[in-house]
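batch job 7 of whatever, protein = Ribbon-helix-helix protein, copG family
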Amino acid sequence: MGESRFMTQNRLVTLRLPTALIAKIEAAARLQEETPAELIRRALSDALTEAPSVVPKSDMAVISSAFETAVGWLDLQAKLRKAGFVLRLDDDRLGLHEWPSDHFVLWIEEIGHSLAELMLQFRAPFPGALTRKAGLATNGISRTGSGRRPGRAA
């Protein structure tokens, strides 16, 4: 059930916008069969709903420093944990999460890094990434490797 417009408090906001942008807003509103104000409110609401968690500037400075000074994955995770964060792998993306709550904060691409770049820098995949990609079972036996344990001599 949506929020009643009679229960919502509103404030008048004035913005200076380029005339070309105003024309685009009006055209888009006509296509959506709504007023320009409705289109703007919906667009702002949608954009803010999808926005990542906001990280305070002081935390961003510590996070950036951790990425710049880390000499490997374990060093990076240790530095981030001291600041209250941790990296988690989700498919082929790394997300920054709060530590210890594990609440998602943002993707590392949003702070100027990528998994591929960090793998090259640290000369190693993200810990645990190879195990997932190789399809190794939780008991450590390869599903395709004729029952041998990885890393052992035949």
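notes: Confidence is low (pLDDT under 50) at residues 137-154.
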